[in-house]
Design a protein that fits this description.
This protein is mainly alpha-helical.
Amino acid sequence: MEYNCILFTSKEKIVLTVAS
């Protein structure tokens, strides 16, 4: 579960970078 949370955070960070 923690690992999944980390992956989600990484994915969100990538999305934010792309959006920016």
